[in-house]
Amino acid sequence: xxxxxxxxxxxxxxxxxxxxxxxxxxxxxxxxxxxxxxxxxxxxxxxxxxxxxxxxxxxxxxxxxxxxxxxxxxxxxxxxxxxxxxxxxxxxxxxxxxxxxxxxxxxxxxxxxxxxxxxxxxxxxxxxxxxxxxxxxxxxxxxxxx
Length: 146
Prior knowledge:
Helix content is 83%, strand content 0%. The chain is mostly helical.
């Protein structure tokens, strides 16, 4: 499927920004002090709830047949919307897996490995946030059309 430049940016900006933030956090890990334990615990709750919401939206989108969904399917935009939804769900799931791993194994790791796992957590956290934001923004724009 061929995408426009704006669609390519929209598709790639969550992972691009996430990598930049994760690399930056790794480079400057000695200069800042974040409460990763609190952030991990909060993200486990938020992303668990968000996965439930996104899966409910997936069910609703697949069951609704109206003029908006027919138009989306006709213009092949429905495929892009479903890709965004899948990225959101998998991003939240990946963030939960990294968060649980962080809770279970963080104290047993050496300092350099702790910095790597913190950066990996930040990567998954930012990606899940941005991909969920992207989908919710587009979904609301479509569903609130007059």
